[in-house]
From TrEMBL:
Signal peptide: none annotated. It comes from Streptosporangium brasiliense. Residues 5-341 form the FAD-binding domain. Pfam families: FAD_binding_3. It comes from the Bacteria. This is 2-polyprenyl-6-methoxyphenol hydroxylase-like FAD-dependent oxidoreductase. InterPro entries: FAD-bd (IPR002938), FAD/NAD-bd_sf (IPR036188), FAD_aromatic-hydroxylase (IPR051704).
Length: 399
């Protein structure tokens, strides 16, 4: 096996999954992560289609099901709090069959535990420079540490440092969809019992939910906007943008907004996608959101990370460590799957955020009527069918 020593930037789902499979195939992975430890908590995410097969092959499906969110259902509410439509958890979340919903932090921990003792982790550090020498990669870290690796893989998300260092500035690859998203923990002042409430206004959506794993609740805000100037590390500035966007909104929005200051896990960013002609250059490759972010609106970011990491590791192993052949195989097998799932984002977000008062009224009216009609599950199945078609748009090799 050639090129055994691989540096992975990012200890999220894509990074730890890649570390597991590389180690299993005989490589020696090292993971560097800017955070001081694995990131806990996070939003609830779904594992669907081909990604289910990946976690089954990792032997953790039973543990994932034990850690499931167990959200029982969800309701759409008006500005006064009246529930106009309610659905069971799987219908509300667009799940079917064996699909699993889990908190992102729980999934990352489960996957990272599989690498315990066999993968080196460098927490509290990140890549500062990458020099491809042709025979290897010289890496300097922010801490000043210098090390040599055979290959480098960026699994460091939408705002990938690895991508910027090796492929070029972010604006060349990141496409803003015209929306912003904010997620954070809040007190469960509505006493929700594994239930989700969603409020829809023109160009503004807000929701809150509780899970079996959390005594508190989560709040999410999704809104349409022209590009906003903001610093990714300026939390106070980001919170001002969210508060301004939801000023004057009804329902529980003011109280949820008030919870931002105390939230330990406040998150804010544009709803964006990453589009690249190539996911590799020389001895460096990208995986997950760094390569083909589909945006949270797709509902497929985690599944893309799981499948992409599995395929990348497998193709490198099948090529005997030949990075050119391995990276080419990865691109060839993943390209269609990534594109199909990216296509979901722009379509889904238009159903999540209504453009006008008339659209809001019509949508609420239709949901209210559908809620009382027989066969509503079949109607919802047609809505989510594109998600499941995209989720299964790849056949996994048995590497």
């Amino acid at each position: 096996m050639r090129n055994k020593n691989v540096l992975i930037s990012g200890a999220g789902v894509a990074g730890v999954t890649l570390a597991y499979w590389l180690r299993r195939h005989g490589f020696t992975p090292t993971v560097v992560e800017r955070a001081p430890a694995l990131r806990e908590g996070g939003y609830k995410i779904d594992i669907r289609g081909a990604a289910l097969e990946v976690v089954e092959r990792m032997g953790v499906m039973d543990e994932i099901r034990r850690e499931r969110t167990d959200v029982r259902g969800g309701s759409i509410v008006t500005a006064t709090g009246r529930r106009v439509a309610s659905m069971d958890g799987d219908t509300f979340g667009g799940r079917e069959g064996e699909d699993a919903e889990i908190l992102r932090g729980d999934l990352t921990r489960i996957l990272a535990d599989l690498t315990d003792g066999g993968v080196e982790y460098l927490f509290g550090d990140s890549i500062a420079s990458v020099t491809d020498t042709g025979d290897g990669v010289e890496v300097t870290f922010d801490s000043g540490l210098r090390r040599a690796f055979d290959l480098v893989v960026g699994a460091d998300g939408l705002h990938s440092t690895t991508r910027a260092l090796v492929f070029g500035p972010e604006e060349r690859f990141v496409r803003d969809l015209g929306y912003y998203i904010s997620i954070f923990s809040v007190p469960n002042h509505l006493d929700l019992d594994r239930w989700e409430l969603t409020y829809v206004a023109p160009r503004r959506t807000a929701l809150t939910y509780s899970t079996a794993k959390d005594a508190g609740a989560k709040a999410m805000f999704l809104f349409a906007s022209e590009p906003l100037e903001h610093d990714h590390r300026d939390r106070a500035g980001q919170q001002r943008l969210v508060a301004e966007a939801y000023a004057g909104q009804g329902w529980e929005v003011p109280r949820l907004i008030d919870g931002m200051d105390q939230a330990p896990d406040f998150y804010f960013d544009s709803l964006s996608q990453v589009h690249m002609d190539r996911w590799s250059k020389g001895r460096t490759a990208l995986v997950g959101d760094a390569a083909y972010c589909a945006s949270p609106a797709s509902g497929q970011g985690t599944s893309l990370a799981l499948v992409g990491a599995y395929v990348l590791a497998g193709e490198l192993a099948a090529a005997g460590g030949d990075h050119r052949a391995g990276f080419d195989g990865y691109e060839r097998r993943m390209r269609h799957f990534a594109e199909q799932n990216q296509n979901l984002g722009p379509a889904n977000v238009k159903r999540m955020v209504m453009g006008s008062r008339a659209q809001v009224w019509l949508s609420l009216k239709m949901l209210s009527l559908m809620n009382r009609m027989p066969g509503k599950e079949r109607m919802m199945a047609k809505v989510v069918e594109p998600i499941h078609r995209a989720a299964t748009a790849i056949t996994l090799e048995d590497y």
